[in-house]
Amino acid sequence: MQQIMITIFLFGAAALEVLVLPRVTPFGLFPDLVLGVVLVASALEGMRAGFLWAAMGGLALDLLAASPLGGHFLALVPAVLAGTAARQSIYRSALLPLMGIVGGLTLGYRAILLFVHWPARWEAWLDAGVTAMLVGILNLIAVPLVYGIVLLAGRLGVRRAH
């Protein structure tokens, strides 16, 4: 049951990120929800659960966005590692370290996805860099919301998927 809840949650976030938000947000700028979920889940549940969330979230994004399979998972791996490192934080909660590193993670996530798609024109690289910086700010704002949702799901019985 827990794995089903996690799968539904991730596919919902991926569907929102790929199918809804690009059409309703101004300038097409929206937070990377699955990146936030994987980052927070890794911080709360550990590396093993983080890799499972990254695999499922990456697969959902790849399928919904018609991207090369494995590209999003590869881009989500640094979020798992950073979330796991934030778990060892000196703070009582992992939220502050996560908010501190999400901007850099966004740049890395977007760079990996850019290399997977490898656009030919230099304007696409420049546009992707500016977009990554702006989305990094949105991700910073979204992390506390995602943190609360994942924490609530954990308290409602959606625990580690082994």
UniProtKB/TrEMBL annotation:
GO annotation, biological process: regulation of cell shape
Membrane topology: Multi-pass membrane protein
Annotated TM spans: 51-82, 94-118, 130-153
Keywords: Cell membrane, Cell shape, Membrane, Transmembrane, Transmembrane helix
Top-level taxon in the UniProt lineage: Bacteria
Residues annotated as signal peptide: none
InterPro entries membership: Cell_shape_determining_MreD (IPR007227)
Example of a GO cellular component annotation carried by this entry: plasma membrane
Main location: membrane
Subcellular location: Cell membrane
Family: Belongs to the MreD family.
Name of the protein: Uncharacterized protein
